[in-house]
Structures are given as C-alpha cells and as structure tokens.
Amino acid sequence: MTAVMEKADAQPKTGEIPSFDVTIKVRRFNPEGDAAGESYWDEFHITAYGTDRVLDALHKIKWEHDGSLTFRRSCAHGVCGSDAMRINGRNRLACKTLLKDVNPGKPILVEPIKGLPVVKDLVVDMEPFFASYREIMPFLITTGNEPTKERIQSAEQRERFDDTTKCILCAACTSSCPVFWTDGQYFGPAAIVNAHRFIFDSRDEGAQQRLEILNDKEGVWRCRTTFNCTEACPRGIEVTKAIQEVKRAMITRAF
Known about the structure:
This protein is of the alpha+beta class. Helices cover 31% and strands 15% of the residues. It has two domains: 19-124, Ubiquitin-like (UB roll) (Roll), CATH 3.10.20; 127-254, Fumarate Reductase Iron-sulfur Protein, Chain B, domain 2 (Orthogonal Bundle). The strands form two sheets. A five-stranded mixed beta sheet has the order 2-1-5-3-4, covered by helices on one side. It has a two-stranded antiparallel ribbon with strand order 6-7. A hairpin with a 2-residue loop joins strand 3 and strand 4 (90-93). Helix 6 (189-199) runs antiparallel to helix 7 and helix 6 (189-199) packs across helix 9. Its cofactor is [2Fe-2S] cluster; [4Fe-4S] cluster; [3Fe-4S] cluster.
C-alpha cells in the first residue's frame, strides 16, 4: 500500500508548469581585482520555469552560483524602475521580462544599459541621468500665496499630460537613444518627458522657463526621431510623440 502511494505521489501533477534548463550570459565588470576595468561575459546554467522572470534568474545565480553578481532591484513589480538592463540587446525591466518570452532555447544575454558609466556588473552610475532630470525643474511652479483650496483641473486638462505622468525614471528610454550614447550632454528622452508633464499642466506657470532650457543645443532639437525610446519604455509612454509636442510648443509659443 505504501509503495503504491509513493509511486502515485511521484507522478507530475495536473497543470504543473514544467521546468527547463536555461543559459544566462551576463556582461560582468569589476572595477577592482586582476581584470580591473575590463568587461567580460560570464555564463551560468540554471534550471527555471517559463513563468520565471529574468530577475528571478539573476536572483538564482546570485544566491546559488555567484554571490558577487551585482545588480539593482527594489519593488520587483515594474513600479520602481531600478532593474532596467539590456536583455538580448533590448532595454527592458528584468522584473517584467519572462524567460519564456526571450529567445526560448537560446542563451539569454544580459548587459547594463548603455550610455552611463558602469559601476559594477549590471549597475550603472545614474547621476548624469538624474542631473538632466533635475535641470528641467520637475515640480509644480506657481506664483502668489499658498492656496487655501485645491487647484481645480478638468478631466480634459488632466488628459493633456496624462501619458507622461507614467514615467518611473528607469532610464530605459534615455539609454536606448543613439544620440545619448554619443553625446553625454544631451538631456535625453526621460528629462523631456518629465518636462512635458509640467509644460502642459494647466496649473503650472513655469512652462516658458522649461522650454527655454530645452531650447538649448543639447535639448529637444538633438532628437532624431528614431523611436528607440518609445519602443524601450516599459510603461508604454509615447515618448517620441511627447518630444514632438514639446518641439511644437516651443515654436508656437515663440511666434
């Protein structure tokens, strides 16, 4: 009786998700040690499930294979934007990318996002990115005394900039831009998107200041409309459209 029960327990359960072997190749960089300053590919073989995310695979590598592997992560639900990286040549969030959706049966290549200095492995220095973000004054600018009641805004007025409020500052759009790769002074799509969010806000009074900042030679006019930024955005923001609207506002308000 016991033997029969043990055999029955060994059978796969109905609806059970099958596991599979996957190869993860990670672009490594260590500022210290024998190979200081030189990046290289490191290969790991793990067992995973199709519903696992790339972030789950990186956790498995770090916890079971190599504790020195370094990457950023926080909420793990596509809200914080901290785990943006290049996965098979495309900027994605590791926490939103399923292994079964990334070249099934082939090695998965994981690299740091481009255009920003690499600190270690998949971690980049985000300061240049946030410096551009701060420069466009990403806050509500108003004049007069502190209001005694809510600043009223219609649904139509809110809809005007709704899309660009979704930005989570992951840098996926900016680090997918070829202009940003070659010109570190370019504000980049994310900064322009966040400027758009306030330029078209009916409650804000700092639109002209932001437009003057973005009219700089490293501002919106450096955009070459390649749509890389729109394709890379994990939140589905129409980044290229927002940049074009800022350009149009700059021209119409000037004349």
